[in-house]
Specification:
This protein is an alpha+beta fold and 136 residues long. It contains four helices and seven strands; from the N terminus they run βαββααβββαβ.
Length: 136
């Protein structure tokens, strides 16, 4: 399996990025939030499941996304030795976070703790390979 961060990203419009976020959100009702961020943590596109309790306010979300972007950039230092990361999963008390590093962006997902995190991330990885990146 090739890492999606070592492929060339296509340039997509804001509408296409939002459409992709919506497609991911609709994969499973346990997915709460889908966002695409820059390597600095700026939110480019997002979609949220309506009617759910929000765990983090918008200001704290901005900080969390910057921290996420920094963590991904720091992990890339070890790509030569360990190989690039396809995704990371954080299992928290209230939710699961899944981060997919892309070339210059990241796909960020939060979900309910009972999401099938052994299946869904690999399905999303396949979608990313088909729809967001192109192989060289």
């Amino acid at each position: 399996m090739q890492s999606v961060q070592n492929t060339s990203q296509k340039n997509f419009s804001q509408e296409r990025l939002e459409s992709f976020c919506n497609e991911i959100l609709n994969l499973d009702p346990k997915i709460r939030f889908v966002g695409i961020i820059t390597d600095k943590g700026k939110l480019l596109a997002e979609n949220k499941r309506k009617g759910l309790k929000v765990f983090i306010d918008p200001k704290d979300l901005e900080i969390l996304l910057m921290e996420t972007a920094l963590g991904v950039r720091m992990r890339r230092v070890h790509d030569d030795q360990l190989g690039p990361v396809n995704f990371t999963i954080s299992y928290g008390q209230n939710s699961i976070s899944i981060i997919f590093p892309l070339e210059t962006q990241m796909l960020c997902i939060t979900a309910e703790k009972d999401l099938d995190f052994l299946k869904i991330p690999f399905f999303i990885l396949k979608l990313l390979e088909e729809k967001i990146v192109k192989k060289d």
